[in-house]
Amino acid sequence: MVRKIALKRILIEETRRELLSLGNSKTLTDPEVVRLSQQLDRLLNEYETLTSDYLYRLQNKEACQDENNL
User: Fold this and answer.
1) Does residue 40 contact residue 12 with C-beta atoms inside 8 Å?
2) Confidence (pTM)
3) Residue 25 to residue 70: CA distance in whole angstroms
4) Which are the contacts of 8, defined by CB distance < 8 A and separation ≥ 6?
5) How many CA atoms lie within 13 A of 56 on its CB side?
6) Tens-digit pLDDT profile for the chain (70 aa)?
7) 27 by DSSP, 3-state: which?
8) Degrees (nearest 5) of the Cα angle 17, 24, 21?
């Protein structure tokens, strides 16, 4: 899970750099810029889902361990 999160983060940064570069040479309404922006949005949403799920599992695991220690 941690590896998936790290890889998603790398994809986000690469896409963000590409979008910034493209945005400097084309208008913000250019179809290619819009497509890349939408791609970045999807990656960010996927990243949020992955990290939320990971934190939930981690907290759940800690809660189970706490109950076992009572």
Assistant:
1) yes
2) 0.80
3) 62
4) 43, 46, 47, 50
5) 6
6) 899 999 999 999 999 999 999 999 999 999 999 999 999 999 999 999 999 999 999 898 766 665 555 5
7) coil
8) 20
